[in-house]
Amino acid sequence: MVPFVPIQGTALEHHSKPEQAFMQALYPKIGEQLRQNGLHSENTKAGCAKCGACSSLKAYE
Fold this sequence. Notes:
mainly alpha
């Protein structure tokens, strides 16, 4: 899970990003679900889950 990032030139370019506190409230809950189901970013071969640059979720796995 990564936070929404508005991209210039798209229909949602003026849509606001989520507040940091909002995302930080979600990560522990999602991290727990990932652990319970054996899903870990280190086992992912590509994509957002592998990279993790846009998200702090790896810290909650």
